[in-house]
Amino acid sequence: MTEKSRILVVDDEASNLRLLGTLLSEEGFNVSVSRSGEEALEQIESNPPNLLLLDVVMPGLSGYEVCQRIRERTETRALPIILVTGARPEEERVKGLDAGADEFLTKPVNREELLARVRSLLRVERLHRENVEWNELLESRVQDQVAELQRLGSLKNFLPQKVAELIVSEGGDSLLKAKRREVTVCVIDLRGFTPFSETAEPEDVVCVLGEFYAEMGEIVEAHQGTVEHFAGDSMTIFFNAPLEIDEPERQALLTAIAMRDRFELLCSTWKKRGYDLGLGIGLSKGYATIGAIGFAGRWQYAAIGAVTNLAARMCSSAQHGEILAPLKFIVSVEEIAKYESLGDKEIKGFHRPIAVMRVDGLKDSAAESGV
């Protein structure tokens, strides 16, 4: 601490400057001197010291006036000041306190007392400096966090929430680069929405969609799913992308069943308003290329591959309340799923028939265990 601490000694008497400068230099302090209050203020402004040793009685600006000017400036308000008093120490100490001095020494200066007071104030100065540095660091971190939140808010307008959060936390867009991964896809779609939207008021349509997405979105979040996009009255959900999760097929199945059950409650409310709507759900699993597609200013996180198309086809084939999935998906959840085969079906976009299964719910053992 002492080797780095700079002390400015101010006194109009050359002999006092030599004496105090020598005592402090011998202790390893970096000492600067000034012979007037005006010169001292100039030095403090250009190169602030860690501590000021200031004589009271000087021509021009007195030690009191120098103190007052130092305390008036924000940059030097915390600078430690030791006033060196003369013949009337008690009277001068009262004036010094009013002016803003921290410590006092009486002439002739006692070496041990001088060094003790200097070291004490330098410790305080160092702690104050560290506190300022910590405050600046905290302020910088707060500003960075605010910037991240603003960036996250902007990204959420274009990307799923989990994708946006990961981009911000990683500090880059590597997450959006295309990569191959096995994913599970769930697609849900309202039945009877077209005739409903043709006859209902636009405000009612928006209200219904808002309620629908709010209820379904809550279930998706609870099961670690990522909503890829909304398309009018439908929703596409990924599991195992962008975040890898344990047992994505199981999570997708539980999501589908929970959404079907929750939808029944919505239906009962909507029917009281004269709205007749249903829900179809499709599931599928397989490999896809996941990442961002689009153009500058408008990106969408997507999974490109047959797995997404198959889930969408399963959904479009499902009647109200049905959850349809190919056999490949059912095999991965057959320990907990109660299902029924609907046989091989010709699916648009697929050259070979697909073995289609209807999920009726969870097996009794799975339901009892709270899966």
What does this protein look like?
This protein is α/β, with parallel strands linked by helices and 371 residues long. It is 47% helix and 26% strand. β4 (81-85), α4 (89-99) and β5 (103-106) form a beta-alpha-beta unit. α2 (37-46) packs parallel to α3, α5 (111-155) runs antiparallel to α6 and α8 packs antiparallel against α9. The longest helix has 45 residues, at 111-155. It is rod-shaped, with a radius of gyration of 38 Å. The mean pLDDT is 86.
Topology:
Blueprint: E1 6-10, H1 14-26, E2 30-34, H2 37-46, E3 51-55, H3 63-72, E4 81-85, H4 89-99, E5 103-106, H5 111-155, H6 161-170, E6 179-191, H7 193-199, H8 202-222, E7 226-231, E8 234-239, H9 248-272, E9 278-295, E10 298-304, H10 306-317, E11 323-326, H11 327-333, E12 337-345, E13 354-362, H12 364-368
Parallel strand pairs: 1-2, 1-3, 3-4, 4-5, 9-11
Antiparallel strand pairs: 6-8, 6-9, 7-8, 9-10, 11-13, 12-13
Helix pairs in contact: 2-3, 5-6, 8-9
